[in-house]
Description:
By secondary structure, the protein is mostly beta strands. It has seven helices and 25 strands. It has one domain: Porin, CATH 2.40.160.60.
Amino acid sequence: MKKKVFALLLCGLPLLINAQDAFDVLQLSQDELRGTSRFQSMAGAFGALGGDLSVLTQNPGGIGVYRNSDLGITLGVDINSTSSGVDKINSTKFNVNNVGYIGAIRLNSETVPNLNFGFTYNRLKSFNRHYMGGVANIQESMSNFIADEFVNVPGFTHDDLYWTEDFNPYFDGYAPWAAVTLYDMPTVDGGYAGIINHFALPNDEGDYDFDEDGYSKYGSLVQGLYGKGTTGNAYYEVDERGHADEYNIAFGGNIANKLYWGLDFGILDMDYRSFQSYEENLDDAYIKKGTDDVLYPVINNLGNTRAEWGLFNYLHSEGTGVNFKFGLIWRPTQALRIGAAFHTPTYYDMRDTYYVSASLKAYQDGVQLYRADKGSNEGYDYSSSYTMSTPWRFMGSVAGVIGTKGILSMDYEYVANETMRIGDTRGNNYPDVTDNVKRYFKPSHIIRVGGEYRVNPNWSLRAGYSVKTSQVEKGVDEYDYNIITVGTNPAYQYDNTVHHITCGLGYHYRSFYGDLAYVHKIRNSVYNAFSPVNDVMLYIPNVSAKVTDHNNRISLTLGMRF
């Protein structure tokens, strides 16, 4: 009966299987250096300067610096090279990074010289990245990791691995979704086999015995394909696409040309798509002996076996969010400016669409014994909804004006990654994800330094540098934690450091201005196909790789002030 229920539901699994986890919200919460060309060419070190269309996403107090109205657009080309091991993938993408208007209203008052308002569009982040690689002579299989996670939860039986109508991943007493995906997969001959299986245990003499229902009299264990004597290789591919955009509505002003202030309301739009595949080829694999309906098959004693299997995950996350920003710039002297800004979390309403499939080919002596496949709905018709909040941010800035020729500026930004949250559509946070966020992540720190030198009244040279520190706790990076993800994809990734090296050129003539920027971004990331098995008595490494992005961006801003 269980098999009949599963067969009916195989083509339409409810996609709550993709409830987001801690590393998913980390991935979706990241910003990057974008905006006008002048802003980018100084590495975004504008928190104490203002007077630029990009400041609405950074320190809205900068809107108060304006004395004239500003209208501009920024276009850019990204040339990205991503490498993982010996594999390198290049891509080129055209973007509109910024479009904006600042309106200045002069009040002819010494106390309040002007009040300003502004509207801007900003591309906050491009998710575009594609990489692949392989790991030879793996010491553990993802199938064993998923099987172990099932076994480690007390009280589970084989019945928990069958799909039923009331299956719910948020309630205690249900098996992990990845385990459900890899268990009891239909074969082409009408039978069932799994990437994880219940295997019978022998008695002390090494004999097997079953009752009339096919159950082992000596018990069983859930095991993956990797066992004593197994060898093999793993292959992975990650293809990400999408963007996060922000639409800003801001107003502000200045007080006695000493204190500049601004408030900003941001409306965000996010669209993220990801395809991730993971495959293993294993020799002397522990495969199911046949495809009949025996629940506890004898562990493989056939010899000279081979298993080729893969897990394929497709995800489309889309949502809209809102945030608020408040900023100040204080000018105690003509040469010194000090800035501060606070960003609330961005509160998103999210919707995910998801598809997962798994495949297995089992061989003995080079002859295929069976092939099994299992997947959710192919039309991606099912979805899940949830809420998500990104970290809050604080920024402190200082800038010096050197005569009429130069500017030096520095920003420090604190990003409270441990405050990220995921919850249901009623706004109730998931406590397990909250606990993982607090455990896995730490604040990251961003330092930005930029300078500008005015060659003559029309031309300016600019340069800058920024660095962002790691987001994860030391225990994550050194594999001291067993990382548990939600859904059918055990993989997780994070950034260690992100560097930007920038330069640019500016031209100004009467009301027209044009700026050109070059940005070189170096992002060092870590990809993990699944968590290492790590406890007091045992450490087995996972399949992981270092991923490095080298992004070269050229952007052009055209605008006018009037």
